[in-house]
Amino acid sequence: MTLENRTLVTAMVTRLSGADGFVNNEIRERYVRFAMGEPGIIIVEAMGVHDYKSGQLLRISNDEFIPGLRDLANKVHDTSPTKIAPQIIHFLKIAKSGWRQTIYDLTKDDIKLIIKQYAEGAHRARTAGFDGVELHMAHAYTLSSFLSMKNNRKDEYGGTLENRMRLMTEVIQACRSQVGNDFPIGVRFDGEECIRDGYGLMDSREIALRIAKLGADWISISAGGKFEDAIKKEGQPIYPYTGYSGDRCMPPATYQDGYNLYLGAGIRDFLLAKGYKTPIVVTGKIRTPEHAEQILSEGKGDIIGFARTVLADPDWPKKARSGNDDKIIKCISINVCKALDENFKKVKCYFWPKNVSTVPFVENTTAPKWPVEGAQLKAEQRTGVVRLTWNKSIDTDKIYAYDIFRSVDGGPFEFLWATRADMKPMYDDGTASGGSTYTYYTQALDMAGNRTEKSNSVAILVPLPVQSET
Ligand SMILES: Cc1cc2nc3c(=O)[nH]c(=O)nc-3n(C[C@H](O)[C@H](O)[C@H](O)COP(=O)(O)O)c2cc1C
Fold first, then answer.
1. How much is the pLDDT for 466?
2. Domain extents for the chain?
3. Spatial contact of 425 and 391, defined as CB atoms under 8 Å apart
């Protein structure tokens, strides 16, 4: 399989399917929208290989799901050169009461069934006309729980590294024998569990080496997302992205860009040293084409994976490719999408208009403007924050957001935040600290990413706190 470019939309549950697990119009619309942005490949949200109902999640557990999946693959292929592969998943039962099945409840027959279900799922992916299949072995789910350092099963499926890798190995082998050598199989797993006594890079390098030796066609590196540190909410099934490991999986605004890069980079170096060139997908707050390009040129990954980045702007790959970086609508990692997923609500971006289930494509090249009196951006010192206010901008269509850029002590301007245009034009910068001069400007953008001129810039010296009298 050859990709048009080195971008990959990582699997992202949409909660758009019904509890029946079938592809519907809203699902098709979501993936066609991603395809319009022309990423190299889209990994479709995790779909169950097991036969029990599992909420609003797609399924591939039975032949009756094939026609809908085939239609989805066809619609994406009709849209652009983007490839499409489903992520297939097995997870254990979970109840609102807090009870959850664990790997210790599984008999050898249950394990055999899981292997069979993965292999059949992979085969259905091929039958449905997808370009490949990704096996989900990351986060809180069955295969990942076997790989986990916490797996203390007393049989040949637990304890030592070899035993923990056994189910993974058997699943990959079974999938390969079902789909043949000419159908790409990718594997996604955690480069680090990000929980106390969980595994880190030392083990994940070995796991990746095994995956490479088994002939996987790509390895996608995620992080965390475990049950062990998840926070239980009364009356709700436990959601494995609520603790620290959840933050590592979907790094929030307080984490720096590329937070998890050292995992993919470490694994890639290790495999290359052993003579394996399996492409490594790196993910986690990769938000700008400049950063993506730097990762590739520095050899920290082979393929740029992103989820929330393209939820915020499905046209990211196309804009990057055509040199329209400045039209990209940036993700601010505020994790509204994650909260929607947690609450079984349709997953959308915080910036999208309220009445849509997928952001529409807008063909519009007219840039919005500031009013005649200008943006009049002002900065004032408040207790612990710098408050920015400005005038609303005007557009032929509608203003979508305001991007705020900041320079510290005369350094380069960097993107700081974006505010929604339907909110008061105001932002409190709580990250400015005393003793530095901060300079800001803002730009309004419309839904196509066209921008106003830069506003006036304002500089403010944040004083060091005065010593209080004792
Ligand atoms: C709403 C939501 C649903 C997700 N669903 C999946 C999933 O089904 N499978 C998976 O491997 N990762 C899933 N992820 C994790 C993303 O694929 C990705 O690894 C993570 O969000 C970090 O990348 P980003 O910073 O580009 O968003 C999900 C993330 C979000 C926000």
1. 84
2. 7-342, 378-462
3. yes
214-267: per-residue pLDDT in tens? 999 999 999 999 999 999 888 888 899 999 999 999 999 999 999 999 999 999
Query: What is the Cα–Cα distance from 170 to 153, expressed in whole angstroms?
Result: 17
Cα 222 to middle of ligand 1, angstroms: 9
The alpha carbon of 449 and the centre of ligand 1 are apart by a number of angstroms equal to 24
The DSSP H or E segment spanning 293 is helix 289-297
pLDDT tens track for 405-447: 999 999 999 999 999 999 999 999 999 999 999 999 999 999 9
What does the pLDDT read at residue 252? 97
Q: Dihedral sign, CA of 313, 317, 318, 321?
A: positive
Cα–Cα distance measured from residue 371 to residue 74, given in angstroms and rounded to the nearest whole number: 46
Taking the C-alpha atoms of residue 226 and residue 25, their distance in angstroms, rounded to an integer, is 31
Q: Whose CA is nearest to atom 21 of ligand 1?
A: 250
At residue 98, the pLDDT reads: 82
Amino acid at the residue 402:
Y
User: Which among 171, 99, 166, 180 has a CA at the least distance from the CA of 132?
Assistant: 180
Ligand 1 atom closest to 222 (CA):
19
The C-alpha atoms of residue 114 and residue 119 are separated, in whole angstroms, by 9
Q: Could you give the count of Cα atoms lying within 13 Å of 221 in the half-sphere of its Cβ?
A: 32
Which residue stretches of the chain have pLDDT < 70?
Answer: none
Are 417 and 409 contacting, i.e. CB atoms less than 8 angstroms apart?
no
Angle at 127 between CA 57 and CA 49, to 5 degrees: 30
- The torsion of the CA quartet 18, 23, 28, 29, rounded to 10 degrees, works out to -10
Residue bearing the CA closest to ligand 1, atom 5:
12
Torsions phi, psi for 77 (to 5 deg) = -60, -35
Whether 252 contacts 229, CB under 8 Å: no
Cβ-contact 153, 163 below 8 angstroms: yes
Q: Give the C-alpha separation, 133 to 187, whole Å.
A: 8
* Amino acid (one-letter) located at 85: A
Q: Which ligand 1 atom minimizes the distance to the CA of 340?
A: 1
* pLDDT value of residue 237: 85
Domain over 7-342 is classified CATH 3.30.70.270 = no
Residue of 10, 54, 219 to test ligand 1 pocket, by largest number of atoms within 8 Å of CB: 10
Which CATH number, 2.60.40.10, 2.170.150.20, 3.30.2350.10, 2.30.42.10, labels domain 378-462? 2.60.40.10
Q: What is the rounded CA–CA span in Å between residue 400 and residue 352?
A: 8
Residues with CB under 6 Å of ligand 1 are 10-13, 45-46, 87, 136, 138, 188, 222, 249-251, 283-285, 306-309, 337-338, 341, 347
